[in-house]
Structures are given as structure tokens and as C-alpha cells.
Amino acid sequence: MRLPSTQALRALEAFARHGTLWQAAAELNITRSAVSHQLRFLEQDLGFDLLQRAGKGVMLTPQGKRYAADVRIALALIADAAVHYGDRGLLQGAITVSSTPGFATFWLCVHVAEFRQLHPGVTLRIVTPPRLEDVEAPGVDAFIAYGDGDWPRHSVELLSVVDFMPVCSPVLLNQLGGLNEPVDVLRSVLLHLDGLGDWLTWLTAAGVVGPRTDHGVIFSDMNLVLAAALAGQGIAIGDNFVCRQAVETGRLVVPFDLTIRAARAYYFVTPRDRPGNPAIQAFAAWLKSRLVQTAPVMRS
């Protein structure tokens, strides 16, 4: 079997991440039919089906999903190697990156030393915005924003889709006598992030009819939501990035298998009217590579 083309592998990775041909095409700056052709050529090279019909569109086969996951990791490793060996120690300067509070605290702060090891000459300043989708701030070179990707005056690149699920402390779970059915979460205090409505979305998807989610505690900052959850003050809705370390260390548990794909996602956003900054480009490449290697939260 010959080695698949890089273009075809990039088309597969983009389609797997976005779930639609037109979004993959937009990211790769090619036509929708070109993406489709690349995927068909890849199927011929591999000797197995990657795509299957889904209504009026197409979706990945189970084998296609597994292969796409491996391809995404492989492409990230290639990009990471280019960053690591291509300009290690050569970049100089200072950059300011704005990140959503929860992502900054529970993901970026955990991994940021790795970027510093790769680029010791770059001084990285991290700030947090007043709103999750805020991409307007003086003196900021790039934004890690959580939203729908609609920032027409900026260059926008998808970092990762987001899955969310209930999380709570093991102490609280024991006090509640366990959570056997999704409706059981209503026996506890619900911890909300202001303006998102994730509890209603999750409970509805779990089959709870007419759930009352207008009780509990509402916070303006994801850091406060997770701090309350870690303290056993209630059950929160967290995502697979901000909750990952707390779940891995046992400080939080995921009581149900059901995860929901969020309507919003994490994006890397830069002002379109500014010249390219090599340090920002290196940070973006490192960030995308590291996010790919971050495994999703599974049930505890």
C-alpha cells in the first residue's frame, strides 16, 4: 500500500473535526467537491470505506473515525516536530494572549511550561477577558475564545470542539447516595455558568421531561463554578478540557456516560489588520498540537 497524500490526510482530519464537507473545505481553502475527491482517493489507497451515507450528507464509518483520530495525532506530531526543531531558541519577544478564565486556569496553566521550554526567548503574558466571546482588547495579540466562530473582523481558526457533562466531587456523590439516573441531579444544587444554559441542554438530551433548572447558584466565571464543585457545593457542567486534570486526579467525578457536543467551540482568534507574528504562529502551532494530544474526559 502506498503512503497516502498529506492533502488527503488533512482533508480527512478537517472533515472529522468539523463533521461537514463545506466547513472542512472552508478551512482548507478548497472546494467542497475537492474535499470529497480527496476522501475518495484516500479510500482507494487504504482499501476500506471511510464514509457512509447519513440522510442527505455523509459521515465517517466507525473504522473511518478510528483512522481519523490516529491521523489527527500524526499530523499534530509532525507540526510539533516542525515547531520543536525548526526554530527552537530562535524566537524572541513578548506576546499577550487572552484566554477564557476556565481554560486558562485548568488547561493552559497546566501545560504552558512546555511552550516555554520550546521557546525560552518568548515572554508570554496571559490575560482573561470579561466575556467568553470577547475578542476586542487593546494590546492583545491573540485570543483563545469560546463561541460560535463568528468574528468577521478577525482571522479565526477552530482549535477544538467541546463536549460537556456533569461533574461533582466524590464526597458529594457519596453524600447523595450515588446518582443512578440523570433526573437524580435535581436532588442536588446545580452550579451554573451565567448565560450558557448547559444544564437544560444536558438534561433534555438525557431524556428528562420539563426539567426545572432555574435553581442553584449562578456564577459569572468558570473558575468559580469548578471551585464550588471541587468544594462539594453542588454539581456543575464542565467540559472535557477544563475538567480533565481534576477528573484524572480524582478530585472530580463524572457520574454519567452521556456527554453533549456543545454548540460553541474553542477558537484561536487574531486581529486581521496586524502583520503576522512568528511568536504567535509558534504559540498557535504548539496549542493545536497539544490540544490534539489531550484525551477527552471519560466516565470516572
TrEMBL record:
Positions of the HTH lysR-type domain:
4-61
- What's in the keyword line of the UniProt record? DNA-binding, Transcription, Transcription regulation
Question: Which Pfam families does the entry mention?
Answer: HTH_1, LysR_substrate
| InterPro entries membership | LysR-type_TF_proteobact-type, LysR_HTH_N, LysR_subst-bd, WH-like_DNA-bd_sf, WH_DNA-bd_sf
- Which Gene Ontology biological process is one annotated for this entry? DNA-templated transcription
Which PROSITE patterns does this one have? Answer: HTH_LYSR
What GO molecular function annotations does the UniProt record carry, in alphabetical order? DNA-binding transcription factor activity; sequence-specific DNA binding
Superkingdom of this protein's organism:
Bacteria
Give yes or no: UniProt keyword Transcription: yes
User: Which protein, by its recorded name, is this?
Assistant: LysR family transcriptional regulator, glycine cleavage system transcriptional activator
- Source organism per UniProt: Ancylobacter rudongensis
